Predict the structure.
Amino acid sequence: MRRMVARRQRSGGSRRGRRPPAVVIGLDSATGLQVARLLTDRGVTVVGLATRASHWACRTRLVCRVVEIPASDDGLIEVLCDATRVEPGSVLIPCSDQSVLAILAGADRLRPIHRFSDPSSTSVESLLDKARFAEVAEAAGVRTPRTVMVDGGIDWEQSHARLSDLRPPWVVKPAVKDDRWLTGAPNKALRLDGPDRYESVRQALEWADPLLVQEWIDGPDSALVTCNCYIDPTGRPEASVVSAKLRQWPPDVGTASAAVTVVDDAVVENTERLLTATGFHGLGYVEYKRIGDELVAIEANVGRPTGRSAMAEAAGVELHYALYADLAGIEREPLGSARPGVVWVHLRRDLQAALRNWRRGDESPRSWVRSLRGPRVEAVARWSDPAPFLLDFWSTATKKVPGGNVSRIVSTRGRQRTSRSENSA
């Protein structure tokens, strides 16, 4: 018989003998929807918080209620401190970098009321800030791409001179991703090439300041590997799940649309060494690109679930329930090893990626179907909870791309491409 892990309650309060509810902050996303479903499957009562209660993910029937919240950090904290809207003693699970940082900033007010993962602010900020992440990775012996920070307050000639040392193509992303970037930029990152790349960086400062500009690392989608892990409150890495991308959407700088679990000890070792070096604990994630036998760390997300972390449960590792149980003070079984070969797919996005590959001759319909065989978990589609998938599919199929709202010219693979302010995802 497997031993049980006893966990103490960490903060807040709850009624004796009753499991506290989980509050998923960011239900209006595929990540939030997946976490809500996973915890509901384990018998946890889930409340969803969303800035857009009309979002397709909020149409799930598996949460007990959806609370609409303001888009500001202060507004989120006010809602969480309102006992008429969020039950005291709840387990808070943020699902975006912005909500992680908001809870960190409001931790003094929230600690007497709720339970939440509460690592040091230094550890979280050093990993989420992409410039500081490069320094942490270097100190841990993990390679990162060559990087230049561009600050709007610095004379542009200085920035131009530093950028000229980077080989194109470039990847441009915010040092810390917030609403300004999410609502203004065409993608989560920009891939720039050609003579207009300097001007494109200047324009991107409208969406984020400072900016991180990195050298692009060539390689197929399959060269992108990630590691989701859980570091328990004592700082001990308890379990890690490694996955390799099969496809992504949008192309080049998008997010995974399909991935598969793999065994890769080097990825696990690098991730655990990098995250624990900061004193971090909780849910962590690091993305790498493989160049031959070498791993290059691209970015980290910590303090929250990620888009495809739900594949962990399908692979036999209950990362999300472990977090909930530890915060709620509930005994649970220790986490084991992940089963390789489990496929995670966001079907609508993967169809978009597959159609592009078919047109380019990079993949056939038969090979696409074959890549999804075996144990599989869907990001959005679920027979017992169909509304989110149907609404997501319909909203994408009927989406109109606004004419004349061109924000920039972005060069991709040597060709000029018009990027609009609304994502084509």
Summary: Residues 347-360 form the longest helix (14 residues). The first strand starts at residue 22 and ends at 25. The CA atoms of residues 201 and 239 lie 39 Å apart.
